[in-house]
Description:
The chain is an alpha+beta fold. Helices cover 53% and strands 17% of the residues.
Amino acid sequence: xxxxxxxxxxxxxxIKLLLYFFTLILLPIATLGVLGNVIYSRSMExxxxxxxxxxxEQVTRNVEFYIHDMExxxxxxxxxxxxxxxxKLEKLGGAAQPDDEVRQVLRTYTEVHPEIAGILIVNxxxxxxxxxxxxIARDALTDEGWYKQAATAPxxxxxFSKPIGRNITTTGNYxxxxxxxxxxxxxxxxxxxxxxxxxIDLKLNIIKQVIxxxxxxxxxxxxxxxxxxxxxxxxxxxxxxxxxNAWLTDQSNSIVRTIRKNNxxxxxxxxxxxxxxxxxxxxxxxxxxxxxxxxHYSILIGAFTLIFAVVAAIFFTTSIAKPIGKLRSLMEQAxxxxxxxxxxxxxxxxxxxxxxxFNNMIQEISNxxxxxxxxxxxxxxxELKTLQAQIKPHxxxxxxxxxxxxxxxxxxxxxxxxxxxxxxxxRIGLSxxxxxxxxxxxxxxxxxxxxxxxxxxxDKLNYEISYDEQVLDYHVLKVILQPLVxxxxxxxxxxxxxxxxxxxxxxxxxxxLVFRVADNGVGMMPEKLEEIxxxxxxxxxxxxxxxxxxxxxxxxRLSFGAEYGLQFTSVYLIADDxxxxxxxxxxxxxxxxxxxxxxxxxxxGEIALAMAKNTRIDILLVDICMPFLNGLQFIEELxxxxxxxxxxxxxxxxxxxxxxxxxxxxxxxxxxxxxxREQLYAVLCKxxxxxxxxxxxxxxxxxxSRETKKNLPLLRSSFGKDWVTGRLTPxxxxxxxxxxxxxxxxxxxxxxxxxxxxxxxGQPFKMLERELLHSSLRNTAAEVLQAWQPNTLFFDSTDNxxxxxxxxxxAEWWALGLRLEQAVExxxxxxxxxxxxxxxxxxxxxxxxxxxxxxxVKRKASYTPAVLRCQKYIETYYNKEELSxxxxxxxxxxxxxxxxxxxxxxxxxxxxxxxxxxxxxxxxQLMRDVTLKMYEVxxxxxxxxxxxxxxxxxxxxxxxxxxxxxxxDWK
Length: 971
């Protein structure tokens, strides 16, 4: 490095620039060429692994979904009454046997699910039934291995890939190696006894579609292996059967093996549900072939780039070095004395600007040489002006001196005093431009100021200046006391009734020079005091108010440090009608040591009350016997304006009645005269500690308030769970509603939103984690319920979302359930059940309504998808007069006869009866609006004839519409 430095020192800028350019060019090319290929190779491998893992994860989820769907079908079948009846048969045949109806049920599922090759139900006696499967030999199916395995573990789903060798033949066009057998036992829910087994053959084509739709690379592929290590399904590939099951034990679920002289990356994932493995295999050689190709192209591009960069570096170096060399030559000529040279450049870059600066410098030097004479002349003129400025204060002092002698001549001693004070005020204030003066001079300055103010205010103003002799020669910033004294006079004493006093003290405390300025005037309002304290703490320059205080504070801080400056402390009042007692109490305690200040003295209760109203008083020392307004009356009126003021009674009365009344007024202490000094000091220390505790308590209350507001949603959720489960009394409910700011009226609305876990028809499958499902469900519902305030949302113990809302419009609120259902299904792509009901008694009816709605939700959630879609279609288009069963069947793509049977079987009524019930329910909701005519209600629910509407209404409700509205049952 030292050799390179020595070499560069002797070279011109052109050589240096070329060397720098070559270094900057070669380093990136070399770095990108070497490290880039390494990083890209690793990146390609990582991307291939991540992509494969994602594909495997997706395939695993899809396969689990299909298996889980088959398990759900087995669950639905095992819950069918006719299937349970069949499983309990001892033999097949007879008029009362359920075999025809069971076959119809099985046909329903195989028609809806084309991926099902066949369904077989076998009971414990060996009786079986199926539309597609038949027994080959006479051997009982209960002796089959799949039956025994399922019966042994009735709660576990059993999977058999390529179930070859079963005692089963099929009528369908498929063989055993084209399906996966899904088997599960059916148990008696009361006894737990195994009643039989249900077997479903799932076509491998559905898995084949999932796997073959997933491609990565030219030769990469996916396949599935069962728990025994047998291949469930694999595409035609010679590599599959060369992968050994013993290899698949790595904890990282990723291995690299050489198969047929080619390196393959094998990534696999175990399914906890199916116990299958999904394996992804791709060739590393194929993946890295692209990297090798890119490396060759990179070398070729780097070579061409290097050649082009060298040519460009030479061109750029010349364009920079040439004008610099020209400028250097011109500067040498100027150095020799030729000031006529100029730099001409056609560029406007930094070199051009440097040349222009050179030209300006040469021109400026020429001008300076010509202006030497004018400069000397101006200098003399400036000296003359300075002399005149020095004469002005001298003229002022002479004028004041003349006025003073004229006053002497006319024997006007008060004018002599004022003029002398004014002269001294100006002389010390100017201090010949000095910023620091002695404490002696500062006290003389403030004494002169007070002399002038005393002349103005006469007996209204008294003052006292005290100091330690040792501080007089200390230096301090000038004019720091005058603004403070001025504030004390104008804002303290000027508004006070009667005379007032300003005290100034200078002391050494703890090695620091301390000035104290105090007055016994009306004091300062609490808001103003807080404003000034905030001003000094934040050190922000004020607009107008408090500028003098801020200026003094900042001057002290800037000159001596941030730990110095102005400080405002608590104020205390002594109210007693005896001056000597007030004086004794004031001087008996070292108030500054307690960080306290006696803000004033009052000789009667009225004066003390006026001072307390205009000044923030933290602690009050008061006598009981005072003129005009005695101490107890004063304390009572004081509590109305300053409830947090600490009152200490000091009195000569020891009667019990006085002490009892004082206790009722919540005085801090009751002391008898004569007061012991140490006892008074101890009481004041306790009072000061109470002030500190009160401040801490206020901060704690504010913190609790902030935390409560921040955790309000969580508190509302916890309250809601206790409310619906009946754990709260009506008084506790009212208290919690008030605390949580839920101003619900006694008549409110109750809604339950329950996801069923089934995805919506025609929508892509969207598997959500529980937390994500909760968040999406809550956010969607909250957005829909935004207009229904106030409301509270919370999840119950079974993950149902419960909403309790205010009701501003009955008809619109009943339509809210459908809006919620549509919004949530659109967001989650899942089928949801929404049930709602009004609450006539907010404080007692919630648990009952919640229990009833839970049963309704559970019942609706058990309906098949076809029935749910039919219900939603009716809920949406119930107001169409021509609505019919074939219309709905066509809309949801199902046969009318089958839909009619499903409605009768699951809901228990026919289509027309159910439609009538829905329309009547909607009518009862519309009838809450008394402005609607009865024929308008009929038209809005799909009846063109009011007579037909009344007939249908009375059939369902038992009353005519007019009677129903008149009775007011809906209220």
